[in-house]
Amino acid sequence: MSDPHDVARHIFINDENELRSGWRVLVFVTCLIIVGALLTGMALALGTLVPPLDYLRREGLIPLAASNVSNLAAALIASAICVNVLERRRLGSVGFKLHRRWLRDFGLGSMMGAASLAIAVGIAASTGAYSFDVQTPGFASLARGFAITSLIFVVAGATEELIFRGFPFQALVHNLGGSRALVISSLVFGLAHLSNPGASVFSTINTVFAGIWLGLAYLMTRSLWLATALHWSWNFAMVFIFGLPVSGLTTLGDVSWLKGRIGEPIWISGGDYGPEAGLAATVALILSTLAIWKSGLFTTSNEMLLAITHGKPEPALLSITPDTEVLPATDQDNQTSESRLF
């Protein structure tokens, strides 16, 4: 490989004649930044041209909702560009394809995410670290809070999953294997939350554990429905039901059902950062990860295995996940694949 052309090609191109996974991740991040900046600029320009829209953009919860939608759009556009151009597959294969088990995975995952957070809160409350007061007694206020927090956390959860368990993670899985990809993505996920208010070493470790929890959910299903369900429902229960900070943020505290009061010991309650900086959350995340791994409730559909294929056959995901053979598509699979969004 003394030829400079061959050396350069080896640096950038792998045996499948694709950009190496690290370069594909870099392209995705670049696309995400550029598309995000363009969407932000368009929103500011629209606000300048239509003053009432600019007023709404700066008032109440509307800026948070608009920001979440803009971030989701940027993640979808960046994913679409990268998956089509760099890997010659469809956007739905990144994780939101309507495969046969998508609704089951999303529904069951939503229950498991909320239950996992409830376990963490229960452990902390049993030590006196949390106490609660009813904050929203009226049905109308309760329904409003439910709708607002559900919408915001579903959109935010889908966005973070596209960024952290979507195209970049899947590029690493395809070329490095599931174990290495899981470690790398989880460390990045933990470090990405260091700038949140009240972040600590403990909160970062727990966020790394959460990255493993969510990454395993993808690897078990090769879909983002389960990971998104776990992610949004964990945050939803923390804020709407228990009125606690989510990763140090308290923006939605006024629309919760209960008002959580955080006491000591801080190493259990998490302090101002919320449950994710305490030992109770560590225990809950470990138990939930084991349930996803060992319960047998989640497997990869043949339809998703076919959808994600590009280049060489997929490597073994992880030694801890069940082996799944790619079989010829069945009639039912073919019918489902025709009813796709992407």
Structure explained in plain terms:
This protein is mainly α. It has 14 helices and two strands. It has a domain at 99-334. Strands 1-2 form a two-stranded antiparallel sheet. The longest helix has 29 residues, at 21-49.
Task: Throw out a few tags for this protein.
342 residues; 14 helices; 2 strands; disordered C terminus
Helical content stands at 55-70%
Structural class: mainly alpha
Instruction: Please give the largest β-sheet.
Output: 2 strands, antiparallel
Strand line-up of the largest beta sheet = 1-2
Distance between the termini: 41 Å
The topology string of helices and strands comes to HHHHHEHHHHHEHHHH
Q: Can you tell me the overall shape?
A: globular
What is the radius of gyration? 21 Å
Please work out how many helical segments DSSP would assign: 14
Enumerate the spans where pLDDT stays under 50 for 5 or more consecutive residues: 316-320, 322-342
What average pLDDT do the residues reach? 85
Query: How many β-strands, per DSSP?
Result: 2
- Strand share of the residues? under 5%
